[in-house]
Amino acid sequence: MDTEINDLFELTGSSMSSSIDHLKKELMKISTGKANPNMVSGLMVSYYGTDTPMNQVANISIADSRTLTIQPWEKSMIQPIEKAIFEANLGVTPQNDGELVRLSIPPLTEDRRKQLVKQAQSQGEDAKVSIRNARRDLMSEIKDAVKGGYPEDAGKRKEDEAEKLTKSYINKVDELIKSKESDILTI
Length: 187
Prior knowledge:
The protein is 61% helix and 15% strand. By secondary structure, the chain is an alpha+beta fold.
């Protein structure tokens, strides 16, 4: 029975870890007023009728701290790339010169910075909810095991262990959000 509970801990740990990974990906998409290829690399572009990530149909690079250049491998892809950027509602207007698409990232206003901080905090709360749900499931399994004959004192120790695991992942979320907030608020 002990190995089953340890397996549950591993499963819960990997679930919490994937919540952290998801949060990192979501935070990368939030603009900090600086050019960042991650802003557009995951945008889906219609490539011969198939939705394909932008980084698989074009070279995305940073021209300067506020300018991204997107050079499609086929010139016919310029229009679908522009369309994907418009649809993503990134707050930037693509400029196309026939060869490549330029994105000039405007400086963030104070209000926009506050909105982005709220967006990052919301993403962090979503990750925390996911982590807490994983803890709830683990606690439920531990309680079921105690009902099924697992020693009660060992069950309490496992519940404490689950709390410590949850706390460590919640702290990781807080650190990520705090780091992103300082990035956004730095002018």
